[in-house]
Amino acid sequence: MIVARILQGDPEAFGLIIRRYEAGLLRYATRMLGSSDAAADAVAEALVRAYRHLAACRDPERLKSWLYRIVGNRCRSHLARRSSSDVSLDDAPPLADPGDHEADTERADQLARVERALGTLSSEKREAFLLKHVEGLSYEEMAAATGERIPTLKMRVHRARAALLAILKEES
Amino acid sequence: MMRVDPLVHRVLDGELPPEVLTPAQRVELERLERAATLLAQVPARSVAHRVMAEVRRPVPSLGQRFARWFAERHTITITIRPAWSLAVAAVLAAIALFLGRGPAPVLGSEEGIAQFVGRFPGANSVEVVGSFTDWRPGAVVLRDDDHDGIWRAVVVLPVGQHEYMFVVDGERWVTDPLAGRYVDDGFGRQNALLIVRPVPR
User: Fold this and answer.
1) Which of A10, A15, B127, B193 could form a disulfide with B181 if both were Cys (CB 3.0 to 4.6 A apart)?
2) ipTM of model
């Protein structure tokens, strides 16, 4: 419905799509790139691109996967430009609700540990783990978002789990 | 690499309930679920105003794009025979001399002068983007020659009302606190409003 409105010439309706998907896309890009600034650029570019090519999204039911696919492509371009899949920890994403209580500090430490572990994964495994477990996509949606086959994605998710678990066990 | 029991994978994939796992396997499951929960925090920022500014910008026609291409700087490489290179260089030099002697640009009746001033100590770059640049960066760059943190630019703009924002260090969009007039950008932030009047003659 919203897609139809936009295609009929109502650009303001695109704001509804942004509101609905922006947070998840930003989170995904931030975790992929390890930089909230680079993630904001990637998501902004991806959303403008999505708007300009919305007619190419033949199945509006798959809009979510399609948006993740465009953001994923921007992230891959960014990582390729950086010539490294290593995630920098210099610009860790800010917490949505930072606090000064002990529990918040503990939570921030845990997050930093997980981010460090995530940063050691290859970009393919990182992408697979994030799409499956953080963004909550099904394997079918992941296949649409990455262009990969489901068995390949399952294998990447399994390997990402094993690698993350090994690192987290070691750290604890 | 550590091996994760296939049962844990199947539970994580939603194929089996957690009850099938041993206590040790449950620890692995909870550790991975905890990691995912921590990573699920949403970054506290938004790109909505940037995207909508671009979305609202009308797509230029083919003619406009052609005109813009001519207005922008491009690197053009032309291959010519060495024998012709001296003659071409002479012609280009003559054209440059001729153009260099031309009159200074005259302010049109529908143009005015706008000054942008902002205090951004420690910034590496400051520019202005707005409706007059199609919200594209790179057209109006402010300078801080004396390094006192006050950035300035003076530009000629069409007479009328313009919306604008400062962009600091290439990514931080800042509403001009000294603008005095603002318009809602539709996403909880405000664009500064500038009214350019014709120069009295």
Assistant:
1) B193
2) 0.82
- How far does CA A138 lie from the centroid of its chain? 14
Residue pair B12/B32 in contact (Cβ under 8 Å)? The answer is yes
CA dist., res. A20 & res. B104, Å (int): 52
Per-residue confidence (pLDDT) for residue A29, from 0 to 100: 95
A92 close contact with B: CB closer than 8 A: no
What's the mean pLDDT when you consider all of chain B? Answer: 80
The pLDDT > 90 percentage for chain B reads 24
Decide if A72 contacts A145 (C-beta within 8 A).
Answer: yes
How far the first Cα of chain B sits from its last, in Å, is 79
| Phi and psi based region of residue A138 (left: phi greater than 0; alpha: psi -120 to 50; beta: remaining) | beta
Digit-coded pLDDT (tens) for A73-92: 999 888 887 654 444 544 54
How far does B95 lie from chain A, in Å, by closest CA? 40
Q: How far is CA B100 from CA A131, B18, B90, B104, B117, in A?
A: 59, 80, 15, 10, 31
How far apart CA B164 and CA B183 sit, in angstroms, is: 10
What's the burial of A51, exposed, middle or buried (CB within 10 Å: 0-12/13-18/19+)? middle
Nearest residue of B to residue A139, measured between CA atoms: B13
Chain B residue with Cα closest to A161 = B32
- CA A168 to chain B, closest CA, distance in angstroms equals 8
Structure tokens at A26: 């930003």
Once rounded to an integer, what is the mean pLDDT over residues A102-126?
88
Q: Which residues of A, range 9-48, sit inside 8 Å of B by Cβ?
A: 11-12, 14-15, 18-19, 22-24, 26-27, 30-31, 36-37, 39-41, 43-44, 47-48
pTM score: 0.59
Residue whose pair of structure tokens reads 């420690």 in the numeric block: B122
CB-CB contact of A78 with A31 (8 Å): no
CB contact (8 A) between residue B1 and residue A31: no
With beta carbons less than 8 A apart as the criterion, state whether B85 and B91 touch. Answer: no
pLDDT bracket for residue A164 (50, 70, 90): very high
